[in-house]
Design a protein that fits this description.
Strand content of chain B: 25-35%
Helix content of chain A: over 70%
Order of helices and strands of chain B: HHHHEEEEEEEEEEEEHEEHEEH
Number of domains of chain A: 2
Largest interface: A-B, 74 and 71 residues
Order of helices and strands of chain A: HHHHHHHH
Helix content of chain B: 25-40%
Structural class of chain A: mainly alpha
Largest sheet of chain A: none
Oligomer: heterodimer
Structural class of chain B: alpha+beta
Number of helices of chain A: 8
Number of strands of chain B: 16
Number of helices of chain B: 7
Distance between the termini of chain B: 85 Å
CATH class of the largest domain in chain A: Mainly Alpha
C-alpha cells in the first residue's frame, strides 16, 4: 500500500469514519479535528503494505479517539488543579501522565490484575495472549487447540471480570482517568431507562 | 437503567470490543450501527474501553520479515515517532504485572504497595507499624503494603524477619512463588537466581503451607533450588542465622558459589568465582571486615583459595588448579 493509495481510500471512506466518530458521542467539530489528525498520520505513513486498508483506517480512527479522550481528561484535571491551587505549574504542552495519575492508574491496574487472577488459568492465559500479546482469536484458537468461539467465551469472561473490577473503583473514588466524565454523571442518575 | 439491562449492554459491548479488535470493514460498520441504535450503547462501551485502556496499548505483534504484515493492530502505532510515553507506561505496567503475579488471589485486594531497596553493601532496617522488624542485607528489594502490615515479598536479595506470632494473623513472606508463614519467630530469607533459602533462628515457620508444607524449627534451614529439584532441609547454628546483620557470614557445608554471592551482597564488591569450584563445600565463619583487603586475605586463608583484585572486582580461584 503506497501512501497516496491509502490517502485515496481515506478520501473515499471519510464519511463512514466521521459517522463512526459521531456514533461514539463526539461533536461534529471534534470529528473534523480527528479526521485532520488522521490525515496527518497518513502523511507520516511509512509506506508499509496494509492488507485491509479500510479496516486499518477504522482502527487508526478508533485509536486516535482513545488517545484524544485520554489527553482531554488529563487537561481537564490539570485545569481543575490549577484553579483549585493544587499545583503551581500547569503545562499546556505536557501531555504525559503526572506522578499522581500514574499512581492511581497503577493502583487501578493492580486491582484489575487481582480480579483477573481469580479466573481459571486457561482463561487468564487466553486473555493474556489476546490482550497483552496481541494475538488474534484465530491464532489463539490454532495455538491451543480450541475453537474460535470457545476462545471468544474465555475472553468474554475476562472482560466481564475486568469491567466489574473497574466499576468498583469508579464507585469508590472520583475518576481521573475516565475520558468522559460527564457520562459518569449519567451513570449515577440511575434509573433512566 | 436497571442493573439487568446494564449487564446485558455490557455483554454486548464486550462482544463488539472483541470483534473489532481484529475487525474487517464490515465489523466496523456493524459496530457503528449498534452504537447509533441507542445512546446507552456508546456510554457502556466507553466505560468498558476506559477499563481496558488501563492495561496499556495492545501489543503490536512483531513484524515478520518481508512482506510486512499485521497492519490491523498497528493502526495507531508509530514507534520511531512517539516512543517515550508509551514505552515508559508499558515498562511500568510490566513491573506491576510481575509483582501482581506473585501475590496470589486473596492477598492484595486494593493495591497500596511500596518497595524498599538497598544498594550493594548497604543494609537497612524497616520497622513496621505492627511492631515487626525486617532487616535488609545489601542488593535487596522488598515489596511491602501499607494495607497489609504482616506481609512482605522478597523480590531478590536477603532479609531477616523478627516478627511476633499472632495465631489469627500469621506473618507471610513471599519469595517468588514460594510462601513462608511464621509461627512466631526470627527467620532469614534469601532469594536469588539459585532459588530460595530460609533459615530459622527462633520459633518456626511453614514453607509453602498450601503445597509442600515444610515445617522448619529453630536451627533448621531449607534450600529450594526451584523447578523440579527437591527441597533440602539442613541444620544451622541458630545464633548464626542472619549473622550478616552483625557483620558475619557463617556456613556449614555451603557451596562456595553461595559464599561468593553472599560476600558480594554484604560488601558491595564484585566477587567472581571460578565456576569449576562453585560446588565445593565450605564450613566456617567470615567476618565482614570494613578493610576489604584484610577481609579477602582472611577469606583466602580460610578457604585455601587465591583472592586477587582486578578491575572487575575480586576473583577467587584455586591456586592448585591453576598450576596444573
Amino acid at each position: 500500500m503506497t501512501q497516496s493509495g491509502l490517502k485515496q481510500i481515506y478520501a473515499n471512506l471519510r464519511p463512514a469514519l466521521i459517522r463512526y466518530v459521531l456514533a461514539r458521542g463526539q461533536s461534529p467539530e471534534d470529528a473534523e479535528d480527528l479526521m485532520q489528525d488522521l490525515y496527518l498520520k497518513l502523511d507520516a505513513h511509512d509506506g508499509r503494505r496494509v492488507d485491509e486498508p479500510r479496516a486499518y483506517l477504522y482502527r487508526m480512527t478508533h485509536n486516535l479517539l482513545l488517545d484524544r479522550r485520554r489527553s482531554v481528561a488529563r487537561r481537564a484535571k490539570r485545569e481543575m488543579d490549577w484553579s483549585t491551587g493544587a499545583t503551581g505549574v500547569v503545562s499546556e504542552i505536557d501531555e504525559r501522565p503526572s506522578a499522581e495519575e500514574q499512581l492511581i492508574a497503577r493502583q487501578q491496574l493492580e486491582a484489575i490484575t487481582m480480579a483477573l487472577q481469580t479466573l481459571p488459568d486457561r482463561t487468564q492465559d487466553i486473555f493474556r495472549r489476546f490482550r497483552i500479546e496481541g494475538q488474534t482469536q484465530k491464532a489463539i484458537a490454532a495455538n491451543i487447540g480450541l475453537s474460535k468461539s470457545a476462545v471468544e467465551k474465555h475472553i468474554y469472561r475476562a472482560y466481564r471480570v475486568l469491567a466489574e473490577a473497574r466499576a468498583t473503583f469508579d464507585a469508590e473514588s472520583p475518576d481521573t482517568t475516565s475520558p468522559t466524565p460527564e457520562r459518569h454523571i449519567d451513570m449515577s442518575d440511575g434509573d433512566d431507562s | 437503567m436497571t442493573a439487568d439491562r446494564e449487564q446485558d449492554l455490557l455483554g454486548q459491548a464486550i462482544r463488539w470490543h472483541v470483534r473489532i479488535a481484529d475487525g474487517a470493514e464490515a465489523d466496523w460498520e456493524a459496530f457503528t450501527a449498534w452504537l447509533e441504535a441507542d445512546p446507552d450503547h456508546a456510554r457502556v462501551y466507553d466505560q468498558l474501553e476506559a477499563g481496558d485502556a488501563l492495561l496499556g496499548d495492545r501489543t503490536v505483534p512483531p513484524v515478520t520479515p518481508a512482506p510486512p504484515v499485521t497492519p490491523v493492530q498497528a493502526g495507531n502505532d508509530n514507534p520511531p515517532a512517539r516512543p517515550p510515553r508509551w514505552w515508559i507506561q508499558r515498562v511500568a505496567i510490566a513491573a506491576v504485572l510481575v509483582i501482581a503475579g506473585f501475590l496470589g488471589l486473596s492477598v492484595l485486594q486494593r493495591g497500596n504497595a511500596y518497595q524498599v531497596a538497598t544498594a550493594p553493601g548497604q543494609t537497612h532496617v524497616v520497622m513496621l507499624e505492627s511492631g515487626d522488624r525486617i532487616e535488609l542485607n545489601g542488593s535487596t528489594t522488598l515489596t511491602l503494603d501499607h494495607n497489609l502490615p504482616r506481609f512482605a515479598i522478597v523480590e531478590h536479595g536477603e532479609a531477616t524477619f523478627t516478627v511476633q506470632h499472632r495465631p489469627d494473623a500469621p506473618f507471610i513472606v513471599l519469595a517468588g512463588d514460594e510462601r513462608i508463614e511464621d509461627i512466631g519467630t526470627v527467620f532469614n530469607v534469601v532469594r536469588s537466581d539459585a532459588g530460595v533459602r530460609v533459615a530459622v533462628a527462633e520459633g518456626s515457620v511453614i514453607y509453602n503451607p498450601g503445597a509442600e508444607a515444610v515445617k522448619l524449627v529453630a536451627g533448621e534451614a531449607l534450600n529450594d533450588p526451584g523447578g523440579a529439584q527437591d527441597i533440602a532441609v539442613s541444620q544451622v547454628e541458630p545464633a548464626m542465622v542472619g549473622s550478616w546483620r552483625v557483620g558475619r557470614l557463617s556456613y556449614r557445608d555451603a557451596p562456595l558459589s553461595r559464599v561468593a554471592a553472599d560476600l558480594a551482597r554484604a560488601t558491595g564488591e564484585r566477587v567472581s568465582l571460578d565456576p569449576a569450584i562453585g560446588d565445593r563445600a565450605f564450613t566456617g565463619t567470615i567476618a565482614i571486615d570494613a578493610d576489604r583487603s584484610r577481609l579477602f586475605a582472611d577469606l583466602s586463608a580460610l578457604t585455601n583459595l587465591r583472592a586477587s583484585r582486578s578491575e572487575n572486582g575480586w576473583i577467587l580461584t584455586d591456586p592448585n588448579r591453576e598450576t596444573r
